[in-house]
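Bench notes, afternoon.
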Amino acid sequence: MNLPKNVGREMWEAFVNHRFEKSKKNWSVGGAKMLLKKLEGFEESKREKLLEESIIRGWDSVYEPQTLNTLKKNTKLGIKDSEHILNELRKHNLGLLDVIAGKNIPLVDGKEITTDRDAMGRYFLKFKGE
């Protein structure tokens, strides 16, 4: 496979080994090529750092780096909204996994619910469009 600029074979192999160690043994060549194409969308100087961060955090892919402002927004709004939404869903015997699984979820405060992930890769609940 041809690696994108600024992605050394050693780092790529470390990421591939990481995926296999996480029981992702069925990762296809097509999937690997898609990930490499995704890497090409990032600045050359950040590509290896993204792979390294993915290994450290136990991720199966690479993600857009979050800015400090995005982190503050996700933390401040996401956690506050997530706790409120979760409390409302519990009234219907529903939880985060039900939303992730795509179950029929009632509106909360008249708004649709969705999930998102914070900078640490953890899921939280939020209102759609916010």
